[in-house]
Amino acid sequence: MNKVTPSALRAAVYGANDGIITTFAVVAGVSGAGLALNVILIMGVANLMADGLSMAASDYLGETSEQFMIRSRDKRRKFPPAWHTSIVTFVAFVIAGTLPLIPYILGLLFGVEITHYLLFSSLSTGLALFAVGSARSLFTHRTWWVSGLQMFCIGAFAAVIAFTLGALIDTMI
Predict the structure, then answer these.
(1) Cβ–Cβ under 8 Å, residues 31 and 162
(2) Over residues 16-42, mean pLDDT
(3) From start to end of the chain, where are the E strands?
(4) C-beta separation of 103 from 65 below 8 A
(5) Predicted confidence band of residue 106 (pLDDT cuts 50, 70, 90)
(6) What is the largest CA-CA distance in the chain?
């Protein structure tokens, strides 16, 4: 665990958190609008890939910008390749971002009839947020449940906003 760099940890937490929250926000928003299962999956997977690539590119651009700024002040400073953290961001985003989609994927692929897809997606999302948040404590030495609860609360807030907006926009259209 000592081999994990602060940059890699930041990229993993950033990617996982954003993957879980944005994918669930899309799922909650379109579920709140009452759209069909296949539409929810299309939106979720499209978000997963597009936003994951965007996050990786943004991480790369941010990392290289920081390196160039520091290098302009200190010509002797050496840096690891910036694409390492962008890969960590993308992989963490896609893996964690898949979790809110699992109930919908099961429903589509295997014909599993889940009465409340959004409820099961909410549970898997909440558990994923808490697990990723708690895992941060392995590297930060903060209390595991506080770290988990912090990430869970941030994600829950985003999910409630997304679902409410989806339902509200649906009634307005």
Answers:
(1) no
(2) 87
(3) none
(4) no
(5) confident
(6) 61
Report the sign of the C-alpha dihedral through residues 50, 17, 152, 104, in that order.
Answer: positive
Tokens of 117: 């897809």
Single pTM value for the model:
0.85
DSSP class of residue 101 equals G
Number of residues written out for the chain? 173
Residue the block writes with tokens 């953290």 = 85
For the ranges 41-50, 66-75, 125-134, the lowest mean pLDDT is seen at: 66-75
Whether the Cβ atoms of residue 43 and residue 30 lie closer than 8 Å to each other: yes
Answer whether residue 115 shows pLDDT above 70. Answer: no
Report residue 155 as tokens: 């994600």
Residue 91, C-beta contacts closer than 8 angstroms, at least 6 positions apart:
15
Residues 2 and 14: their CA atoms lie apart, in Å, by 19
